[in-house]
Amino acid sequence: MRPFIGSAAVRRGELTRRGLAREHVAVYRDVYLPRDVELTAQLRAHAAWLATGATLAGISAAAMHGTKWLDASAPADVLRSDQHAVAGIVAHTWAVTADEVSLVGGVDVTTAARTAFDIGRTRTAAQAIPILDALFNATRLKHCDVSAVAAAHPGARGVAQLRSLLADVDGGAESPQETRLRLLLVAAGLPRPETQIRFPELHVRVDMGWRTWKVAVEYDGVQHWADGRQRAWDIERIALLEAAGWLVVRVSADMLARPHLIVARVREKLRARGCPV
C-alpha cells in the first residue's frame, strides 16, 4: 500500500472523511497511510514526495533505490530552491544537474551515484559507510560512478570527506553489523577482507574472508540462533568449509561489544595460516 493524498481520495468517493480519519494516519499534511501499514523509510520518502512535489535526495532517495536498514523515523530529504519545509522533512538547496535525477517508481529522485555523493559528503563516516554499503548492495553502484559525480562538483561541501571514506565502502555487506565488523577488522590493521566469497561447488558463501589464507569471518545475526533450520544449515555449512581447508571465526551481536576479542581471534587464525599480522 502506497501513501496517498487524503483529500483527493475523498473527492473521488473512495473514502469518507470519517473513514479517512478513523482508518488512516497522516504521515504529512493530507498524506495518509492505513493504520495497519508499518511506516518504512521508503514509504516516508514517497509520502514526502506527495507532500512537496520535490525531488527526493539523500536518505529518501536511497530508500527509493531499495536501500535496506534505513531508519523510518528519520526526516525525509528533498531538494528545493529554498529551505522551507514542514516538520519531518528536511529541504536542501543542493545544485543538481539534469542527468543526476531519475524516475524511480514514478517518483523523482537523485540517481544512485548522486545519492551516494550527497550522503557521503554530509554525514560522518560512521553514519555514511553503513548506508552507502547498503545502497551499493541494492543498486550495484560502482565507486567510479560516485567519483565521477564528485569530479563534476569539486567545490561542493564535504567532497574531500566523501573521497576519503569511499575506499571503505563495500557493497558486499548485507547488514550494518557486517559493515561494522569489516571496518573493525581493517581499523585493527588486518588486511581488508573480501566480502561475500562464494563456493559454487559447496553451494556456500561466507560474509567475508581471505582466500590467500583460507580464513573466513561470519556474522551470525539473531536468526542464526533462533531459527532451528538456519542453525542446522550453519553447522553443516561450517563443516563443509572446514573440510575444504578453511578456518572460520563466527561473530555474534554480543561479541561486537568486545571488539578486542574478535580482532584477537581473527588475527590468531590469520597468523596460523602465515599471514604477517
Gap between N and C termini: 52 Å
pLDDT average, as an integer?
94
Protein structure class = alpha+beta
Order of helices and strands: EHHEEHHEEEEHHHHHEEEHHEH
Q: Radius of gyration from the CA trace?
A: 22 Å
Number of strands: 11
Annotation field: number of helices:
12
Strand order of the largest sheet: 8-9-10-11
Proportion of residues in helical segments: 40-55%
Strand content: 15-25%
- Which regions have little confidence, pLDDT < 50, spanning 5+ residues? none
The biggest beta sheet reads: 4 strands, mixed
Shape: globular
Explain what this protein looks like in three dimensions.
- This protein has 277 residues and is an alpha+beta fold.
- It has helices at residues 6-11, 17-23, 41-52, 58-64, 112-122, 125-139, 143-152, 159-166, 176-187, 223-226, 228-243, 259-272; strands at residues 4-5, 24-28, 31-34, 76-79, 89-92, 101-104, 107-110, 194-199, 204-210, 215-220, 247-252.
- A hairpin with a 2-residue loop joins strand 2 and strand 3.
- The longest helix has 16 residues, at 228-243.
- The termini are far apart.
- The mean pLDDT is 94.
